[in-house]
Amino acid sequence: MSTETSPDIAASAASLRRFLHGLPGVDQVGAEERAARLATRSIKTTAKAEAIDLAIGMVDLTTLEGADTPGKVRAMCAKAVHPDPTDPEVPRVAAVCVYPDLVAEAVRAVEGSGVGVAAVATAFPSGRAPLEAKLADTRAAVAAGATEIDMVIDRGAFLAGDYMKVWDEIVATREACGDAHLKVIFETGELATYDNVRRASWLAMHAGADFIKTSTGKLSPAATLPVTLVMLEAVRDFRARTGRRVGVKPAGGIRTTKDAIKYLVLVNETAGPDWLDPAAFRLGASSLLNDLLMQRQKLRTGVYAGPDYFTLD
């Protein structure tokens, strides 16, 4: 496989296409079998307690609905900072994720807490808008205080083989982000094949992505273990070739503690322990946090609280 530098890879549409199609194909059966095998790993009680706290600290607590209000965002942010007000030892989440027009509200609500504020810019969730509109959306979110931008690629362009258009949009969005981190969303359910997921991963990483992300959470299938495995292999191999660590974020459909721990095992066994860090791995979820809190309380007290014990998201 080519080891060209990013500018060389993007020198022309032809060279970018050659690079992406020169990537090794994904063994579909092997990827699915490995993901299924890792999902059966058992976790002992002490390790489970540590895994739950780690997972809580990796959550991007999310509200992305047309009916979102400033009050709903403030309530979510309060939960992000203090997930369980009765237990100050519960770690804060990694970030909250909102629409760009609600960034300023979220920034005020988490000020001084260490919780990041992510904005879904670039015509989320479709990615279908003129580039200037996407960049204006990004710049406005950053100006309002967003520390992370979650952009969606133009899947139509990618599937049509117009990789240069996707590349150019990622590069331009990375520039518009300034100091904010850029997460690039593939909507893997629409990419259809593991080979496409691998190509999208390498394209985004060479174009400057700080994270690669499976899904918007608006379509099914969203995150899956085999797809995340392919992405983790890509970031592992990318660092081996370039020295740069890129994060991974599965999002959508991760609802239970059991699900979250399966992903943590996958991370450790595929990319390695360097990725067991909120700076390199996130869980995009809106309902996962409550289950993590319930399981945490059960381990701590022996009593399993009902789902109405914690605030609903």
Automatic annotation (TrEMBL):
Q: Which Pfam families does the entry mention?
A: DeoC
**UniProt superkingdom:** Bacteria
SMART domains the UniProt entry points to: DeoC
Stated EC number for the protein is: 4.1.2.4
A GO molecular function assigned to this protein is:
deoxyribose-phosphate aldolase activity
Q: What pathway does the UniProt record associate with this protein?
A: Carbohydrate degradation; 2-deoxy-D-ribose 1-phosphate degradation; D-glyceraldehyde 3-phosphate and acetaldehyde from 2-deoxy-alpha-D-ribose 1-phosphate: step 2/2
Keyword field: Lyase, Schiff base
What GO CC annotations are associated with the protein? cytoplasm
Can you say what this protein is called?
Answer: Deoxyribose-phosphate aldolase
State the species of origin: Actinomadura craniellae
Q: Which gene encodes it?
A: deoC
